[in-house]
TrEMBL record:
Top-level lineage group: Bacteria
Chain segments carrying region Disordered: 464-483, 605-633
Naturally occurring in which organism (per UniProt): Burkholderia aenigmatica
Protein name: Integrase
Amino acid sequence: MVRKKNYNVSENRAAPVGVISASLERPKPGADDACIDMVALLGLEARFPQRIKTLDLRDWLGRGIDDWVCSSGFCLKAMLLSGARATASVTTYFGQLPYLFEYLAGSSQTPLPQRPKLPSDLSPMHVQHFIGWLQKRAQAEGWRPSSTRNTYRGVKAVLAEMFAQGFIEGEPSRFFRRGALPWSSEDSLQTSLSDAEQERLAKAIKSDLVDVHHGRLQLKQSAVQGLRLLLVAHRQGLNPTPLLEMCRDALAPGFLPGTILIRTAKHRSKKIRSNVGRSALGRHASNQPNEQADEQNLCFDLSEGAVLQQAIASTRELVGEAPSAFKTRIWLYRAEASAGSTKRGNITCLDSKSLNRAIEGVIERRSLLGDGGLPLRVNLSRLRKSRFDRALRTADGDIAITANLMGNTPRVAGVNYPSMNEARKADAASFMNGDYTVLMRAEAQAPRGNEIRPVQVEPFKVGKGSISAPPSPTPVSACSDSISGEHAPNDGRSHCDRYVMCLFCSSFAIVGTVDELWRLFSFQMFAQAELDYLDEALGPERTTDGLLEDLRDRYRVVIPYIDDFTQRQFARSRVAQARAKTVSGLHPYWQHQMTMSRRARHRASAPDLRVDGSHGDTAIPRIRGTQQAGPRA
């Protein structure tokens, strides 16, 4: 049974939803719907991961699209009240709506379609026109394909809610074509840090924390908390939101001595993840009390457990003043300046912006540089990918073990976390320039079996005064000696009927007429069908049946070779005519052979794939010539 998402955290949210769903009439949004105070709507206990608590669309009023603006605000409010969408998701949709409004308010450069002034005027053509407009906008501003796709998805979610609320009539599947903006492979902007970069970053964080502890460095409380979070993120590679929302009861004893369990929660999937970390070290008394301890050896623990305990202990007196939404958080601090809804002196919690300021501070203080000589670029995504690299090395390349260490499935870990940083590129270049060359030379010197090669095909030219007899037609093309050829029975009277071997025989001949090329392309279609069946029946791996594998190898060689030499040897117009004739219908001989093959496979409940030494063109079923006196097309 599919689980339905529910982000409802307030009982007051159910009442407005019931009123909306009970009404059979289309709702009438007003100007008040263009501004949504999410705190007043959802309550103080609601989650606001992006720190945005007001969705204000009133700047778009008075531009001729008021109905669109008010309806969009009404739909955002309905999604919030329903509990089916997280506040972070609705906030993302709100951020994508200006692109829709800009399209609606702009003037169309083409007479059709006219921009819809009301939601009820929307048609499938408008949706496709908006997608084209969005793609042109993305191309002009240099967006990545994922950015264009995410923008469309956000707008689509609001339009889908308009269908549900009755603002737009019709079947949504007619408006939203599948694969309108298909997923395309692109390199991630975030790559893992190299080992050298990770070492420099770890030393910088350690130096800052040690200096703060001994009073040599004065930092704001938010910067100190950011350093502590950065150390845990570097060691554990946790996702940003679970790490920022880590609770004060996240620590638990580990199963092994000297370890702890760090619990984090993913709000969307309702999953609790436990990561193993190092616990705080115990303090041992010195054997020589009068001995002066070295400043660097003073007891200051930088394990994950100790750093988290420092963060909890240093903010214990702030819990009583913290808002209800932050009372259980670890990364509390007192705001040094007013920012948004947070006033100076208020108790707040680390978010992405304050964490970025802390990261920029440590990079500037320690002059951290990347491998390329530029300032080191650090974020939690790069730290998580670096953790993936370390886990992959620990697991000796086993993606299943690595995914388990990361807390993901192998598919998610394999798709999202591998990356190519500068150090890996240098290693790859070194391998291609050195090791790969050695391997290829060693492989070239290794003994090999007989290689299957087709004959060098040259068009057979028949002149008016030519003494030589024209080649005999065959179902493949033609043969200069069908009785005494390489693969003929060589009994002096029987013609060769092993048509699979034609392109591997020195007696193969082709003049290049449209009719001949038609027979050749028909054989190519037959060979492709037989190869597909052999691949399905035998599997991708090579089997011990030498005859069948030889037949499969010949099909694999001859199919692309036909395309190659026909394009090189004959006029394009003639090849195109023959191709068109093949598409309209195969040569009767090969059409008959394909029919016989399908019937034989259908009759055989457990087909025995065997080939004898006298097989004709194929193994399943075996093809023989229809005329012993001489094959004719």
